[in-house]
């Protein structure tokens, strides 16, 4: 008996060792990819979903890591754009991120046509992945000054149907579940009836959707048969769609709940010339975290795995089947409902308010254990009328569902808050029809991670190309960027082997004039081209035009008039920006010598100025022109090369030019009598001139340089919310037609998880909605909606 037991345990040990050895290379490659592929996710809470041209769109940005959804301080810049149905850019801006959060606004001009648009957001680092994983949200913009254009329905595809075998493929002789998705031209699921036929038009199985045009059916394909489906919508229109091809050999998996606590994964296979009892591996991961790996022998072409639901992380899990050669052969997505989330409570101090009265809202945040938790929230309060179209997307549904799947997910919030008994099965249909998406095993198994785009950790990065006259890359050329003015910025970069240059711009806001140049004394032929910082990768989304009913037209007119009234009476408040506090210290810090030229005798020639009262700089004139020699006070010597000479932040490489400049236009002169290091460059001192206006004083810029107006990070626009604290203020004759009563992008709860919000109602009566979204430090997300009524008790 002891001999038999020893032999038995030896077999178990060898089997476990073989299993570990077999799966180890896969786990190693997965971990290598995870380490080099940090994921960022952006979510935008926008104040509303329908806008009129002339209104402001306000937004809050949440930047989280793709694994735990915790705020992440990697990128300091987010790119926000509005695109039309053809992916034409309507508006775009750059927004500052700090510790994972940012906020901004977009003014919607009257040039925008009626219709639906996509607002999308991403970071430079996110551009390493597909554009499908940028943040996208559909909004409606109505131009009340422009006639709605007629829509050509004849050119539109009326029905789109897709079929997705569970696991990936149909195999003859093996029963498969097939998920399906049938949508109309606008991308919305439709109700229909469908039947599968073989090539002999024999009926195989009938089916119909469960929710949003999604559903599933099962059947067993036979050898030498082809299949198609005929779909009939509610108007009697039909469409014929081919089913995916069947294979003579392959794998099929089926996932279903075995009990309340267990998931059963059944594997069926038909393998040509298969060895006896071949091995398969099941690998489970969620958002770059491995949580499961197991091996099974296929007994008579079948094997099963039982998974405890407690082992699954919240949200979407990928269950991938690998064959004995560690090649992925099947994949199934499974969704576990969230355990970790924020419970947001909204409580107003009264249900009904008079016009121009204070509203007090108490916000209370707790986690899933009913314990208070500090969080960052954003809040919008707007009039709730027929124009308030609910897109049914929240921070919860986006982070845990939509952000990890490609394509359109209709009404994603339904799967999280619905009491519908069909919601669980409907969500599994989403998993069936969206497999093999964000995560690609092919990239992991065959490719090294190559990230073309770097994170902008310390500010916006301006990118460019340096080329030769024949447009070939100019390698290792020194280039310089400067923003002339009183608060100058200066940067330098040397082109790489591809001719690429990058300038990292910290604290760079608003529209500024930027000058790019090379050192013309060393390089006079290279050309500089500044690249578009925005992504030019797009994805297709079904968008439609806006067709208002007669009732909506009246409401649109009322809202348009109210908007115009606000623009007329409160223009100064609406266009108010909070400018960042400029750093008055030059980029090189405190100079070693500083001269205010008005404190000295003013000479008409710059050479006299330099020779008479700038002892830290020696002026030399050689055959090739003037040269400056700056004292090296650190080493008690004199630098032998020319220093960096600047006028209002613009590098001047030809010192003869600065010597010809009128010194009476110069207000001050700074001298740095030591080496200065910036980026890849070292300068033997600095001589910096500043004019009275910081505008170069008429100095002629070298024609080989590039001067452009460049938009930096968005200036922070202040949201206008008037106060009516006194009877005099309430009786003001200025109209108050605010439809959006309040917008607060950054509310930080205290240690007790609470925050108090106060604002005033306008002159508009009706029902108002309060929408709050938020994120805690542990990645818990929350969404809540409240309401109140405004009445005019004086009427």
Give a summary of the structure in a few sentences.
This protein is mainly beta. The chain has ten helices and 51 strands.
Question: Can you walk through the features of this model?
Answer:
- The structure is a single chain.
- The protein is built from ten helices and 51 strands.
- A five-stranded mixed beta sheet has the order 2-8-7-4-5. The chain has a five-stranded mixed beta sheet with strand order 26-51-50-28-48.
- It is 13% helix and 41% strand.
- The protein starts with a helix and ends with a strand.
- The longest helix is centred in the first third of the chain and has 35 residues, at 2-36.
- With 795 residues, it is mainly beta.
Summarize the SSE layout with pairings.
Elements (H helix, E strand, L loop, with lengths): L1 H35 L3 E7 L3 E3 L3 E10 L11 E7 L5 E8 L4 E7 L7 E8 L12 E8 L16 E7 L4 E2 L4 E9 L7 E7 L4 E5 L6 E6 L7 E7 L4 E5 L3 E2 L2 E8 L4 E9 L8 E8 L2 E9 L4 E7 L6 E8 L5 E9 L6 E6 L3 E3 L3 E9 L8 E9 L11 H6 L13 H4 L5 H10 L8 H6 L13 E8 L10 E6 L5 E6 L5 E6 L5 E8 L8 E4 L19 H20 L1 H4 L2 E2 L14 E4 L9 H8 L3 E6 L2 E8 L4 E2 L5 E4 L2 E2 L3 H5 L6 E7 L3 E3 L2 E3 L2 E6 L14 E6 L4 E2 L9 H4 L9 E9 L5 E7 L5 E11 L4 E11 L4
